[in-house]
Amino acid sequence: MTYLQKAKVSASQYGQNFNEFTGDLQLYRVEDNIIWAYLGKFQDDKLRLGGMHFLMSMCGQWERDDQ
Fold it and tell me: Mapping DSSP to helix (H, G, I), strand (E, B) and coil, where does residue 20 land?
């Protein structure tokens, strides 16, 4: 909750009306619950699962394909 609030303040200082948060599944679920609980306050925030986790799963697949 603190992170979402500080990100909103920081973004508004630069004229940005939304925030995009990227994280792993555990963080995504926590953020999603907070956003739903305070929908009016964080309605412009966007969540997505981390690209790093996707990239690492692909690297693991490539490694298995080489064997």
Answer: strand
Report the C-alpha gap between 7 and 62 in whole angstroms.
36
Overall pTM > 0.85:
no
Q: What separation in angstroms does the CA of 36 have from each of 17, 65, 66?
A: 18, 41, 44
Q: What is the DSSP string of 34-51?
A: HHHHTTTTSTT-EEEE-H
pLDDT tens track for 9-38: 998 999 988 888 887 778 888 888 998 999
59: helix, coil or strand? helix
